[in-house]
Amino acid sequence: MTETRDEAASTRRLQVEVFSDYTCPWCYIGHARLERLRHEERGVLELDVTWRPFEIHPEVPEEGMPVEELPYSREQWETMMERLREQADGEGLEIGARPFVSNTHEALMAGARVQAERPDRFPTFHEGLFRAYFSEGRDLGDRSVILDVARASGLDPDALDSALDRGDGEDALEATRREARRLGISGTPTFVFGGTHAAAGARPVEALRQAAERALEADEGAYA
Fold this sequence. Notes:
Radius of gyration: 18 Å
Mean pLDDT: 91
Number of domains: 1
Distance between the termini: 34 Å
Largest sheet: 4 strands, mixed
Strand order of the largest sheet: 2-1-5-6
CATH superfamily: Glutaredoxin
Number of helices: 9
Shape: globular
Strand content: 5-15%
CATH architecture: 3-Layer(aba) Sandwich
Number of strands: 6
């Protein structure tokens, strides 16, 4: 079914920026919830989403680090993982064991490059990186893993490999750091609706919808 002229005119549009990192579990859940909102609002509200690659833990060494080195006791970690899996289950996501924390610098560079150069394949690649880490327990600090996900996403892994060698994507990471400082963003995920209304954390779908509505009302009020 094609959209009529009247339906197109009545559809509201809103820009959304999503600041996230690939080893942030709440980013994975938040992504699924935003996608659910997009599906539920299709034809009424079109969300134009731009992902912002925000390296939340640049201190993680290139080879990664065991989760035991994170500042949590075993009891705290088990409680966090139980809560995480409960919420992930609600979105149909699988969270496996996490024996280590990956350095995501190159994964973020790759995501930025694919979003810019192959936006048609970006959703598949983006979700593939999340799934590789959280469901399959693969190391996103290993470039071969990134290239495997690229190949499975219908991308040219050799072209991406060369792009990473050239440093493609570094400028996107730096621009994201600057924008995060400007907006006062220090955690992930953070959803910025209409450039003005931020929602931090893996908010329920209804909370994201309310943030979108507030941004739309503010925008409409500015032109009233």
